[in-house]
Design goal:
This protein has 479 residues and is mainly alpha-helical. The chain has 21 helices and five strands. It has a five-stranded parallel β-sheet, sandwiched between helices. Helix 2 links the parallel strand 2 and strand 3. It binds flavin-adenine dinucleotide.
Length: 479
């Protein structure tokens, strides 16, 4: 029979359950990626992610060609496109891996109904546990991470097979020439116009290798070396102490199953070292984010804690927001993070927390403004992890940091960027400043300060902290 394999957030050939099933059950397979303007998971993401997507699709196309197959592209509302493709190709079956954002869930449900004649088959290729699987004993979702992790780890102990991965299919059946020629609904990858007209993206990608093979290599590199010092290394933004797998995971170039499988190497979770366990927990944080998004879909743009709807944010914040976005707040570690993001499409997790706390608590700008900027600028922009990260920092999400815990960016810098190397790398204006002042250049003597072209702090850190606490006190006792 002839089938359609619809690629979405699973841009890989290995450990891809929908592809494995389709390759086995069909004699001919139409592999397609649809750029759907309504698709919240992929197409509505920002410019940096679309650049990554372009290169990831290029890599996937090359891998499929090596197997004698081809990746087709189409643009438009998915249901209409699929109906056209079915009528043009004469496909009798359809396969895809599930996504979990609310808009896509609704869209996919209606596609499943509309295409019921083809008996659509859907799979879990994105997560280890489906969002509806790892629940409390009363069937409700976890809102706190530690018990979520414990339950997930226990379940994995009982069902080690869950981490079994699927090999790359030996054969991916190609579409016959006749069927391929009838595909009038398809366009070229270039016609999707995922790359921006201006060429800023080339410098952004110079430190990245995109695609499934690169993701696999990065897993191996990280697991051989940095994972052993991860407990400490993951907090040091000047070091390469983390895996940098987030964009690969977001686009499904590698599965979390594969990563845990390679981490464990036949061991049980309980046999991992402390650093390895911390890393496994981070992989599961991502799953927790997907669970929250699934069970509390309103958290895409609303605080989970309803008291925060009444929170009094600052007025007239355009200039402050712009200075934060550009890395010109006058607070070195904040500016270093924002410039790293702008230049590379990525930011270290410790610094994500610092810049988010500064925006929300020192500048009193709603977390949604930061979430949107991240969504546009991150190559790993992910609805679930981004919303969770911002609400965690704001103190208004599930298992959030308490609002009164306000990061002091100077102390954070002095603790996690002791020598100031991270700041000097991204804020070259401070390259010559001594370690003692690199996180607080406003304390330099007036003469030295006047020789440095770097802004004064936008707000006083102590006063703005007090202001945030006062605003929080106003909503604290409310419901
Ligand atoms: P590693 O430390 O090597 O961790 C391995 C993997 O675990 C990551 O690739 C990621 O998939 C997962 N992970 C690690 N930490 C977290 C976490 N806190 N939440 C969810 N998953 C996690 N991550 C995204 O993937 N996309 C986002 O849009 C995103 N936005 C964020 C916004 C804010 C305000 C904050 C505080 C965090 C955000 N994170 C986001 C989480 C985290 O910062 C990144 O996943 C991490 O920095 C990616 O780098 P890495 O791959 O080297 O991570």
């Amino acid at each position: 029979s002839r089938g359609i394999l619809w690629f979405r957030q699973d841009l890989r050939l290995r450990d891809n359950p929908a592809l494995a099933a389709a390759s086995k059950e069909c004699d001919e397979l139409l592999c397609v990626f649809i750029d759907d303007p309504q698709d919240q998971t992929i197409s509505q993401l920002g410019a940096a992610s679309r650049v990554w997507l372009h290169h990831s699709l290029t890599a996937l196309q090359a891998s499929l060609r090596k197997k004698g197959s081809e990746l087709y592209f189409a643009q438009g509302p998915s249901q209409e496109v699929l109906e056209e493709l079915i009528s043009q190709s004469g496909a009798q079956r359809i396969y895809w891996n599930r996504c979990y954002d609310p808009v896509t869930i609704e869209r996919d449900k209606s596609i499943k109904t509309a295409l019921s004649d083809l008996q659509p088959r859907t799979f879990n290729g994105l997560l280890i546990h489906e969002p509806w699987e790892n629940l409390k004993s009363d069937g409700s979702p976890y809102r706190v991470y530690t018990p979520y992790w414990r339950a997930a780890a226990t379940a994995l102990g009982k069902e080690p097979d869950r981490l079994q991965t699927l090999n790359m299919p030996r054969n991916i059946p190609a579409l016959s020439d006749v069927a391929a020629q009838a595909l009038a609904a398809c366009v070229s990858l270039e016609q999707l116009e995922l790359l921006p007209c201006r060429d800023w993206h080339e410098s952004m990608l110079k430190d990245w290798q995109v695609g499934e093979d690169a993701a696999q290599a990065q897993v191996e590199r990280f697991l051989k070396s940095a994972v052993h010092g991860y407990d400490e290394g993951r907090n040091l933004p000047a070091e390469q102490g983390t895996s940098r797998l987030s964009p690969h995971l977001h686009f499904g170039e590698v599965s979390p199953r594969h990563i845990l499988n390679r981490l464990l190497l036949e061991r049980r979770l309980s046999a991992l070292s402390e650093s390895e366990t911390t890393f496994a927990k981070e992989i599961l944080w991502r799953e927790f984010a997907y669970s929250l998004l699934f069970h509390f879909p309103q958290t895409i743009d609303e605080p989970l804690d309803p008291r925060f709807r009444k929170f009094e944010w600052a007025e007239q914040t355009d200039e402050h927001l712009r200075r934060w976005q550009r890395g010109m707040t006058g607070v070195p570690i904040v500016d270093a993070g924002m410039r790293e993001l702008y230049a590379t499409g990525w930011m270290h997790n410790r610094v994500r927390m610092i810049v988010a706390s500064y925006l929300i608590k020192n500048l009193l700008i709603p977390w949604q403004a930061g979430e949107q900027w991240f969504r546009d600028k991150l190559v790993d922009a992910d609805l679930a992890s981004n919303c969770m990260g911002w609400q965690w920092t704001a103190g208004c999400g599930a298992d959030a940091a308490p609002f009164f815990r306000i990061f002091n960016p100077v102390l954070q810098g002095e603790k996690f960027d002791k020598q100031g190397d991270y700041v000097r790398r991204w804020v070259p204006e401070l390259a010559e400043v001594a370690k003692k002042y690199v996180h607080k250049p406003w304390e330099l003597d007036a003469q030295t300060r006047s020789g440095i072209d770097y802004p004064e702090p936008l707000v006083d850190l102590k006063q703005s902290r007090e202001r945030a606490l006062t605003s929080f006190t106003a909503i604290k006792g409310t419901k």
